[in-house]
Design goal:
By secondary structure, the protein is mainly beta. It has helices spanning 55-58, 73-77, and strands at 3-5, 25-29, 35-42, 45-48, 65-69, 71-72, 92-96, 102-109, 115-121, 124-129, 135-136, 141-148, 151-159, 177-179. The strands form 3 sheets. It has a 7-stranded antiparallel β-sheet, with no helix packed on it. The chain has a 5-stranded antiparallel β-sheet with strand order 1-4-3-2-5, with no helix packed on it. Strand 3 and strand 4 (45-48) form a beta hairpin.
Length: 180
């Protein structure tokens, strides 16, 4: 099955549900590379996208499970149009979903002229979209296309799959993009 029963009932229904069709959290097994996007929760039960794996055969007694917030477009690329943003109007970031579908995150001006994120997915364009609701899975491949005065630059990498240790004073940032 794809449901896990926790020893608590104190979870708000839908607390970890996807936002704008993007998983917002993942369930991972501590100390391993096993994780699954959370599809939702009700009471103490969490439903995950187990990709047809039987979790009763994958999980073992004594496994420590962690719920982690997934990295967002705003965390990885910044706020569209901000001077420190990695994506500026005219830039694109392609990413591959778990099922092999390629989606494109585009930074362009919206109808008011403000830089915004737009999502191209399966022939449809959505936007402007808040970058905080667009999430990336651990290790998800991303290809960035930057268009500027020097021409077009390409970067290939993956979303950080392990939390980064915050070393800065007062720093709590634990997400990132690892260039390949």
């Amino acid at each position: 099955g794809n449901a896990i029963q926790l020893a608590t009932e104190r979870l708000a229904p839908g607390e970890w549900a996807p936002r704008n069709a993007f998983a917002s959290h993942a369930l991972l097994v501590a100390g391993t590379s096993r994780w699954w996007p959370i599809l939702g929760n009700e009471g103490g039960q969490i439903m995950v996208d187990s990709q047809d794996a039987d979790l009763s055969l994958v999980l073992s007694p004594g496994d420590t499970l962690e719920i982690v917030r997934l990295s967002t477009a705003t965390q990885i690329f910044g706020t569209p149009g901000a001077s420190e943003s990695a994506l500026q109007p005219g830039d694109f970031a392609d990413f591959v979903s778990g099922n092999g579908t390629v989606s494109t995150l585009e930074c362009r001006n919206d109808t008011t002229g403000a830089p915004s994120y737009f999502l191209h997915h399966v022939g449809m364009v959505s936007g402007p979209i808040d970058g905080a609701s667009i999430t990336f899975l651990p290790g998800q491949p991303i290809q960035v296309q930057k268009v500027g005065e020097a021409g077009t630059l390409w970067f290939l990498g993956r979303v950080q799959s392990n939390p980064l240790t915050p070393y800065g004073v007062g720093s709590t940032e634990t997400t990132g993009f690892v260039s390949e």
